[in-house]
Amino acid sequence: MIASPLLNARETATRLRVSEATVRRLARRGELPHLRVGSQIRVDAGELEAWLHRDVERYETSKSARQSNSPQLARTE
Description:
Blueprint: E1 6-7, H1 9-16, H2 20-29, E2 35-37, E3 40-44, H3 45-69
Antiparallel strand pairs: 1-3, 2-3
Helix pairs in contact: 1-2
């Protein structure tokens, strides 16, 4: 098995296109899979990819549910 590289908070933020503070907040809330080396956050690159795909699928599922539950406007012509 080939191990994925571990990313630090800055590298993770760059890949997610968010700030380092957001990465730290997601980690603190337990929303981002990570491990700590002392006080530093490390994110497995492979797990980050899997997390992104799960998050996108969850977003798409909730988006379609919201659209099907939203009232439809009647067309008047």
